[in-house]
Amino acid sequence: MHAIGIPGFWFSHTFVLLALVVVGLSAETQEPSLGRYIMYLTGQHNVVPEPFLVANITHVALAFMRSEAFNDVDPSEWPLFTTVSEARSKFAAGTKIMVAIGGWGNTDGFSQAAKSEESRELFAKNVGKMIKVTGADGVDIDWEYPGGNGEDYKTVPNSEKAWEIEAYPKLLANIRKVIGPSRLLSAAVPGLPRDMLAFTPTTVPLITAQVDFLNIMTYDLFNRRDNITKHHTGLKISLEAINAYLECGLPATKANLGLAYYVKWYKTAPGMDCSEKPVGCKTALMEDPKTGGDLGQAGAFSWHDPVPAELATSFALALEKGVYDEADGGHYFWDKEEERFWTWDTPDAIKMKFPGIVEKRGLGGVFAWGLGEDGLEWQHLKATNDEMEKLNVKSRREYRLGKLAGGWKQGERRPGGPGGKIEERDEL
Ligand SMILES: *[C@@H]1O[C@H](CO)[C@@H](O)[C@H](O)[C@H]1NC(C)=O
Ligand SMILES: *[C@@H]1O[C@H](CO)[C@@H](O)[C@H](O)[C@H]1NC(C)=O
């Protein structure tokens, strides 16, 4: 108002009234907020289906750019398996194209970055530079994981990384400060409580204040550090992971559920009969207790990849005889002959997660690892498309009803939803 240069009570009063009318109008015409629908596009499977199948994807995260690239004083190159503009050309106009930094095993660059205010500033400045150079809409920080339990957890004990717990929200804050509110900042975060070292009621609000959303990795929830069979992306453990973040103070609208477009298997303990209780049965030793090395007793492959020859018989049997575990929510098969446990989501198992988790908790959206991994039949993508469309139809309808009834607050997603409150604790 000062800039207009016409002082006086009457004018400012009118101006305020006008402003209120304008705000009111724009709120009236505002669209309902639809679900976030995010795909990781990976260097391993840089495959994108025909445009109509990806028409409603809202964000794509290109995985990965290495974290250490951002610690150089003046980096001139930003190595990535594709370019932002190349990726952008394969999706609908308006799809946000982000660069995912880090990934499993790539933690050193983050540790170095987080150490001091100076190193954080340098990292953040370079993130800003990279965004400018590549034209990305933002970054997704995939530090797996701040505080430890990464690939190197046997060689670098978590105690040596305890300082990262406090430094992690600071690093995010430094990045936000450089990129501003108009660019996106998100993070991929662990789905297993044992890996949530840096995600506590103290830190989550600090993290939440900086990020647009968190991608909660509700897959690989069984890995080679386990010793009892379970579903790697089961409905119940996925919901538990989401609940853990909500309980730490993450608003549901900033939480995205992770979907896995790949299959996992692992060996059960030699001679162990798991037929009575296939879920919850003892597994073989899968990780070297000293080095943390892979003992070759577990593996994964995407729907895109040919089934490895030595697994073909067992997997064919799994596809034929696999069942859905109604109690814990997950598709599985125990191959008695090969003492092998298979765990994966069918398209139907993915669909169950929408009413079972996304709607139940009023989440902001979903993401999948990863888009190309579901080629070339795209069955899991199609299932996700269907469910996102259902959610969005509902959201639009509730928006219209809400508008007629003068009901709900603008900007609130799915007014009927629980909005992050957890009322059904005993269900777990
Ligand atoms: C199995 O793993 C749990 C932690 O996931 C651990 O506490 C337990 O000692 C392990 N049991 C055996 C027999 O290795
Ligand atoms: C994308 O959204 C539109 C509008 O809601 C819908 O008609 C269409 O079926 C959706 N496409 C896919 C592939 O889900």
UniProtKB/TrEMBL annotation:
<feature type="region of interest" description="Disordered">
    <location>
        <begin position="407"/>
        <end position="428"/>
    </location>
</feature>
<dbReference type="InterPro" id="IPR050314">
    <property type="entry name" value="Glycosyl_Hydrlase_18"/>
</dbReference>
<keyword id="KW-0732">Signal</keyword>
<feature type="domain" description="GH18">
    <location>
        <begin position="35"/>
        <end position="391"/>
    </location>
</feature>
<dbReference type="InterPro" id="IPR001223">
    <property type="entry name" value="Glyco_hydro18_cat"/>
</dbReference>
<dbReference type="InterPro" id="IPR011583">
    <property type="entry name" value="Chitinase_II/V-like_cat"/>
</dbReference>
<dbReference type="GO" id="GO:0008061">
    <property type="term" value="F:chitin binding"/>
</dbReference>
<feature type="signal peptide">
    <location>
        <begin position="1"/>
        <end position="26"/>
    </location>
</feature>
<dbReference type="GO" id="GO:0005576">
    <property type="term" value="C:extracellular region"/>
</dbReference>
<dbReference type="GO" id="GO:0006032">
    <property type="term" value="P:chitin catabolic process"/>
</dbReference>
<keyword id="KW-0378">Hydrolase</keyword>
<feature type="compositionally biased region" description="Basic and acidic residues">
    <location>
        <begin position="410"/>
        <end position="428"/>
    </location>
</feature>
<dbReference type="GO" id="GO:0008843">
    <property type="term" value="F:endochitinase activity"/>
</dbReference>
<dbReference type="InterPro" id="IPR017853">
    <property type="entry name" value="GH"/>
</dbReference>
<protein>
    <recommendedName>
        <fullName>chitinase</fullName>
        <ecNumber>3.2.1.14</ecNumber>
    </recommendedName>
</protein>
<dbReference type="GO" id="GO:0005975">
    <property type="term" value="P:carbohydrate metabolic process"/>
</dbReference>
<dbReference type="Pfam" id="PF00704">
    <property type="entry name" value="Glyco_hydro_18"/>
</dbReference>
